[in-house]
């Protein structure tokens, strides 16, 4: 009885303190709101009003914590429509004097537009580096996968701009119900696109490794087997995660929870999101460090090894973004203020996607950077003879017989041989028996000439 009286007084005080709400509106608050307050507040020994000041209590007005989470969850679940739930949350926000003009939308918009522009420039530079007319190696499957990954990146950028237009970055109770519904739907719709982008950018790197270290006739490379295994795992994991996101709820419309009077069941989507993030970060680390042991075996100076490895290790930036994103999922548990709480997770998801695209373009751009550097007026004759980072084209590979003459344009990364590792098998050469060479490619060449292989009959 005391709680009901407090609730009535609180509604009157709230109505008088707010210019946008009158007493009639306060008294017409949906029944689900006071019902939740009557049931939840006594569990935490909390009342609506302070007996001395007749103002809302600190425990009731806390914007975070077990009480706030449970109260908002009750309102969102018990109220039959989102409109009624938002009315209750808005009354609490106005009565407790929550901030009303917060807006992180401009930050989200600026991040999406700026990083998308940078990503596009890196993608263009990658394809220019591979263009045969610019002494590039030509296009291959890794370039096709990157180009395919650019499509979901464009989609994510457009969705981010659309979300800002609907009010993402503001408080839910300050927006029309239709806008909150739209934010919830678009946020759910972009999740499969995000997963496709981050997983398949890693796939493009694995395919690049397969291009750098190609197979040899009659020779099995353990490294290539590992690459193919990781590629299959990436595809399988991506498809599994995407399908689990799409069908996380039954019916599917419950995935954004806010479909009016929706009934059904959902999995623990936030816990699933943490699992997706952990898998993503794990694959990031595996794919990035996979070529490092081979790169460290290069017959080049330490400075050159550091430079080459740095082109690949820059992908750790995306891993860091993925780990930071995992720490920003707290706001997804309650759905209390989705247009505000979802911004952190969405912002770091954007940064991770763009960084993934940029990082997977870095190794392939090395040749273009070296060509531009060596052709500049600041470059001396000696520095022009330093090993470059260009990938050898197929015609150049066929034209070169495996013996690198002084002054020949070095190519890094390249499918050309640097190391030759012999196997125990034998092959016949005329009347003599010669060892059959199983060529284990490292893919990075220097001016050091390699031995000619004996011709095979």
UniProtKB/TrEMBL annotation:
<dbReference type="InterPro" id="IPR049326">
    <property type="entry name" value="Rhodopsin_dom_fungi"/>
</dbReference>
<feature type="transmembrane region" description="Helical">
    <location>
        <begin position="347"/>
        <end position="369"/>
    </location>
</feature>
<feature type="transmembrane region" description="Helical">
    <location>
        <begin position="107"/>
        <end position="125"/>
    </location>
</feature>
<keyword id="KW-0732">Signal</keyword>
<keyword id="KW-0812">Transmembrane</keyword>
<feature type="transmembrane region" description="Helical">
    <location>
        <begin position="225"/>
        <end position="253"/>
    </location>
</feature>
<keyword id="KW-1133">Transmembrane helix</keyword>
<feature type="signal peptide">
    <location>
        <begin position="1"/>
        <end position="17"/>
    </location>
</feature>
<dbReference type="Pfam" id="PF20684">
    <property type="entry name" value="Fung_rhodopsin"/>
</dbReference>
<feature type="transmembrane region" description="Helical">
    <location>
        <begin position="186"/>
        <end position="213"/>
    </location>
</feature>
<feature type="domain" description="Rhodopsin">
    <location>
        <begin position="125"/>
        <end position="371"/>
    </location>
</feature>
<dbReference type="InterPro" id="IPR052337">
    <property type="entry name" value="SAT4-like"/>
</dbReference>
<feature type="transmembrane region" description="Helical">
    <location>
        <begin position="145"/>
        <end position="166"/>
    </location>
</feature>
<feature type="transmembrane region" description="Helical">
    <location>
        <begin position="308"/>
        <end position="327"/>
    </location>
</feature>
<dbReference type="GO" id="GO:0016020">
    <property type="term" value="C:membrane"/>
</dbReference>
<protein>
    <recommendedName>
        <fullName>Rhodopsin domain-containing protein</fullName>
    </recommendedName>
</protein>
<comment type="similarity">
    <text>Belongs to the SAT4 family.</text>
</comment>
<keyword id="KW-0472">Membrane</keyword>
<feature type="transmembrane region" description="Helical">
    <location>
        <begin position="273"/>
        <end position="296"/>
    </location>
</feature>
């Amino acid at each position: 009885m005391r709680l009901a009286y407090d609730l009535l007084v609180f509604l009157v005080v709230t109505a008088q303190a707010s210019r946008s709400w009158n007493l009639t509106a306060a008294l017409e608050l949906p029944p689900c709101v006071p019902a939740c307050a009557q049931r939840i507040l006594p569990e935490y020994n909390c009342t609506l009003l302070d007996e001395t000041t007749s103002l809302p209590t600190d425990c009731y007005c806390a914007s975070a914590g077990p009480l706030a989470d449970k109260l908002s969850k009750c309102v969102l679940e018990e109220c039959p429509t989102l409109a009624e739930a938002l009315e209750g949350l808005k009354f609490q926000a106005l009565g407790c004097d929550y901030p009303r003009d917060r807006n992180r939308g401009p930050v989200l918009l600026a991040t999406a537009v700026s990083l998308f522009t940078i990503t596009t420039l890196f993608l263009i530079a990658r394809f220019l580096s591979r263009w045969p007319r610019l002494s590039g190696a030509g296009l291959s499957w890794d370039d096709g996968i990157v180009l395919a990954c650019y499509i979901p990146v464009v989609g994510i950028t457009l969705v981010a701009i659309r979300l800002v237009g609907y009010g993402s970055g503001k408080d839910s109770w300050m927006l029309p119900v239709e806008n909150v519904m739209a934010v919830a739907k678009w946020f759910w719709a972009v999740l499969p696109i995000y997963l496709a982008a981050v997983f398949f950018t890693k796939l493009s790197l694995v395919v690049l490794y397969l291009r750098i270290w190609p197979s040899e006739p009659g020779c099995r490379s353990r490294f290539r087997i590992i690459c193919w295994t990781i590629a299959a795992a990436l595809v399988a994991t991506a498809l599994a995660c995407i399908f689990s996101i799409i069908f996380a709820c039954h019916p599917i419309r419950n995935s954004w929870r806010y479909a009016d009077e929706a009934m059904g069941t959902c999995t623990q989507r936030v816990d699933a999101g943490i699992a997706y993030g952990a898998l993503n970060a794990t694959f990031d680390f595996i794919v990035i460090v996979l070529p490092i042991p081979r790169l460290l075996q290069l017959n080049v100076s330490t400075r050159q090894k550091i430079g080459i490895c740095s082109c690949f290790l820059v992908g750790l930036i995306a891993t860091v973004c993925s780990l930071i994103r995992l720490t920003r999922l707290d706001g997804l548990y309650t759905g209390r203020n989705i247009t505000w709480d979802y911004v952190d997770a969405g912002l770091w998801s954007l940064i991770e996607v763009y960084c993934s695209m940029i990082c997977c373009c870095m190794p392939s751009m090395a040749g273009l950077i070296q060509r531009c550097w060596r052709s500049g007026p600041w470059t001396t004759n000696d520095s022009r003879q330093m090993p470059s980072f260009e990938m050898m084209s197929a015609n150049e590979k066929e034209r070169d017989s495996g013996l690198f003459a002084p002054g020949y344009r070095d190519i890094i990364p390249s499918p050309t041989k640097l190391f030759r590792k012999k196997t125990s098998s034998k092959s016949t050469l005329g009347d003599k028996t010669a060892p059959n060479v199983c060529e284990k490619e490292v893919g990075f060449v220097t001016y050091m000439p390699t031995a000619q292989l004996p011709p095979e009959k």
